[in-house]
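Help wanted!
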Amino acid sequence: MFSKFLSLEKEKQDRIINAAIKEFAQKGYDKASTNEIVKEAGISKGLLFHYFGNKKQMYFFLFDYCTTLITDEYYLKVNFKETDFFTRIRQAIIVKMEMLGTHPDIFKFIQEVFLEDSPEIKVEFDKKKQEITHINMEKFYEGIDYSKFREDVDLKKIIKIITWTFEKLSDEVLNQAKMSPNHEIDYQNILDETEEYFQVLTRCFYK
Amino acid sequence: MFSKFLSLEKEKQDRIINAAIKEFAQKGYDKASTNEIVKEAGISKGLLFHYFGNKKQMYFFLFDYCTTLITDEYYLKVNFKETDFFTRIRQAIIVKMEMLGTHPDIFKFIQEVFLEDSPEIKVEFDKKKQEITHINMEKFYEGIDYSKFREDVDLKKIIKIITWTFEKLSDEVLNQAKMSPNHEIDYQNILDETEEYFQVLTRCFYK
DNA sequence: TTTCTGTTGACCATACGGGTCAATGACATC
DNA sequence: GATGTCATTGACCCGTATGGTCAACAGAAA
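Answered by r_m:
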């Protein structure tokens, strides 16, 4: 399907992928312009369509590319033998922070895909999205030692509260970075703050 | 400025306001179409511009309208003499749920305004948005009795975790409603679940 | 009949979108 | 040098949609 594109030299592939991801992440499917993408990537318009056929197929390709990139990284760097919930979630957060630095637009793009409701896209993606979240959730919670949690409150709610906390924390970080002049992310600060939240949460939710 | 519009009969005002809010909430500033708004409102295009001058001024008007509507309701229904954090937050959530029923599009519109980054809009709104959040935050936390919270962990973090929990819970509710066939919100269910989270959070975060 | 206000919707300029394709360039084979 | 092959170009097409205007109209009041 995308063999023509895949047999390109890596550098050019990356230039195109990055340009496209950036555009889609910023504007969403409908408003993203192929003209902008080719301009940013430094190729001609015809070539883009030569590689991907049309806009929709390109979007599919990018989604696949991003999800495998991210999940591969998680599977590589997160130790799934670790049974402590907080230790495991800490690993995941560190991986996420790293990738926020190395591939700044990918997360925004993925998020955008999950919010997307352009009719052209929605139907075909809804299944995919559900599958992916399901698989990753299952994998993520696999083998966790839940016996450490206090037993006088509903465990499922505790897990949700913890997960939500770190999601919101990550949103806040992203927002702060967007507001800051240099657009840089202060990793040490984040890790410190994350660690502080870990302390609060372990103290309150563990036995 | 909007005197012509304001001197209309209330029913017509509402028809126009609701149509416009719905359109902006769904599509965001740029993609929202004045054509759609007039169609939905059942008025002619000329009339819309006769009332509001142009699209941007209409957007301003709607933002003002919505924020005052919401804050007025909060100030009316939330008892600011109540010093218990959870009791007060419970009141706020109930008001929000009620309004999610009576004015379904308003929250989506407000949310959309806060996410909006159309260059035409962004600059002029950034100040406004900050001011509003600041004022409301201050008012909301005024007079709360913090002595009930456990003292072995950072209070600010606890407050954040609680706030985030209910924000995420509300997001989840909205999402579930969007997914459900009838688009209805199951209020009893929400209130029950909210109550359960209250129990978890009080037990873990109060002394 | 005239005047006035509220209201209409066809119309304008124009921008921008995805997608195409004849033409070009680059390079290998003969 | 000629021929063939393949990647690559970008001017161009056509359809769509936009915010905004304005001459015309309706209907009530004077």
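OP: Thanks! One thing I noticed: Residues 155-179 of chain A form the longest helix (25 residues).
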